[in-house]
Design brief:
Number of strands: 12
Distance between the termini: 22 Å
Strand content: 5-15%
Low-confidence stretches: none
Length: about 500
């Protein structure tokens, strides 16, 4: 007899996408309003993207520290209530659109003003600093401010983290060091207050962690022995995926790959610590590029494409000893093979099914509603895909007719009565019905598809830099959209 899962629904919306006056979503009142609306609609999970401090390319999947919180998400009005900012300073920070260049140039200036008025001799803050939670991050960011460039180019004693050099950095630039500590202190204070509020409403948070970390990061600087680096601490091998149907030259990501033999020597302590930190930050963790934990593709550093590389064995299920299947979602999209399927089976983790991938005409397509099983998470689309409406609009007239007919057939087969319309006006609604009506234990809907938005609301185009991660909810969601979602959740007993 198959295991019975509780049927639940979730909504995907990153913090940056929340509405507000200051150019980017924050952990302030709009987040609380959004959480309350989710809970009232019967939603049990709020999924966000990585909350880390973003760097070049503004991607939440590349950060100076995998344990950092994004200072952009600190709520300016909360700082004002603490008398750390003035009304005039709040007014100067107002911005309707999300422009990361302007944000970078202006937000840290205003955060420094707040810090200049912060009483950092307070016991709570002193205890935070003593805890070491943000120590590596604060030292790294202080060194970046002082020395610039990439850590491998810093003076030797700092590059190699000699204790006396780190102490001198901490002492000589103490105020700078405390500024970066302050940012993490305030972020965590606000985030965990929001998380407690969500949990009290019966709403759990699904977080997200990338498999790899950025090269120029506190993570690699702090533990270079855990990555395949040379004696000068430069990468020997970098991550990517080989050429396939989508890319003739593959994808060259450039992240340093892990030295899994070194990780194994202490029972994968660094990675397990990372997962435990993530499970403290969130209620459930989605691991991006999960297949790389079975086998991963490494490319020689300096290669211009991913065409020449080699598959290597990953840590497999050993990495997850002691972790519960209910706590982790495996992003198992892309190049799947028996090894990944076996790893999923051994760990018991839920994989992902994306309905936008279902309608290629193949009856055994694993993403078709009829082929979706219980132990998985069903999405209409993800942050890396078109919206449902945007995908339909991207098709030629002939392709659209075929797509529409395949969706109509899947709806009929599932017993879902939705008239799509000649132009596919009801396609986003149909995808909501298919996701929520599937056998998947959890169905997660990107907020863009709840609203039926086109690709102007798309979050990310993989492989491109600039113009991504900027989608904002310009206003609170219409009550009619919440009502529609609530009725669907109730209909499908989620």
């Amino acid at each position: 007899m198959s295991k019975q899962y509780e049927r639940e629904a979730g909504v995907l919306c990153h913090i940056s996408s929340l509405p507000g006056k200051y150019g980017i979503g924050s952990l302030g009142k709009e987040a609380y309003v959004f959480a309350k609306k989710l809970a009232k609609s019967g939603v049990k999970y709020w999924q966000v993207l990585p909350l880390v401090q973003t760097g070049y390319g503004d991607s939440p999947y590349s950060s100076v520290s995998c344990k950092s919180g994004n200072p952009y998400f600190i709520d300016l009005e909360t700082l004002a209530k603490q008398k750390l900012l003035t009304r005039e300073e709040l007014k100067s920070a107002e911005c309707k659109t999300l422009d990361y260049g302007e944000l970078y140039n202006g937000r840290y200036l205003i955060l420094r003003k707040a810090f200049s008025r912060f009483f950092f001799d307070g016991e709570e803050f002193r205890e935070f600093v003593r805890s070491g939670i943000a120590e590596d991050y604060a030292l790294f960011m202080t060194a970046k401010t002082v020395f610039g460039g990439t850590f491998c180019d810093w003076e030797e004693d700092i590059r190699l983290r000699k204790p006396e050099a780190l102490e001198k950095l901490r002492t000589d630039y103490h105020e700078e060091y405390l500024f970066w500590q302050f940012l993490q202190y305030e972020f965590r204070r606000e985030w965990f207050a929001l998380k407690r509020y969500c949990n009290k409403l019966g709403l759990k948070i699904i977080g997200d962690i990338p498999l790899y970390v950025a090269y120029d990061s506190a993570d690699v600087w702090t533990c270079p022995e855990l990555f395949k680096l040379d004696k000068k601490l430069r990468p020997k091998k970098v991550a990517g995926v080989p050429p396939d149907y989508f890319s003739e030259t593959g994808q060259l990501w450039g992240n340093p790959v892990y030295d899994w033999e070194k990780h194994k020597q202490d029972g994968y302590g660094w990675w397990k610590g990372r997962l435990n930190d993530a499970l403290e930050t969130y209620d459930v963790v989605r691991i991006d590029h999960f297949r790389g934990l079975d086998r991963y593709y490494e490319i020689p550093y300096g290669a211009e494409t991913a065409e020449i590389g080699e598959w290597k064995e990953g840590p497999k299920e050993q990495l997850f000893e002691g972790f519960s299947p209910k706590d982790i979602i495996a992003e198992d999209l892309g190049m799947m093979d028996e090894g990944v399927r076996e790893l999923l089976k051994k760990t018991g983790f839920s994989g992902m099914k994306v309905l936008l991938f279902a309608f290629d005409g193949e009856p055994d397509n694993e993403f078709l509603p009829k082929n979706i099983g219980e132990n998985c998470v069903c999405y209409t689309g993800t942050h890396d895909n078109d919206t449902v409406s945007g995908y339909a609009e991207s098709l030629s007239a002939e392709e659209f007719i075929l797509f529409r007919s395949r969706v109509a057939a899947a709806l009929e087969e599932s017993g879902i009565l939705v008239q799509l319309g000649k132009q596919g006006e009801k396609l986003p609604e149909a995808f909501l019905h298919m996701a929520l009506g599937s056998k998947a234990r959890l169905a997660v809907i990107p907020v863009q598809d709840i609203l039926g938005l086109d690709n102007s609301a798309r979050m990310n185009y993989p492989g491109t830099v600039g113009g991504n991660w900027t989608f904002r909810l310009e206003h609170r969601i219409d009550p009619a959209d919440w009502s529609k979602l609530k009725k669907m959740i109730k209909k499908y007993r989620r």
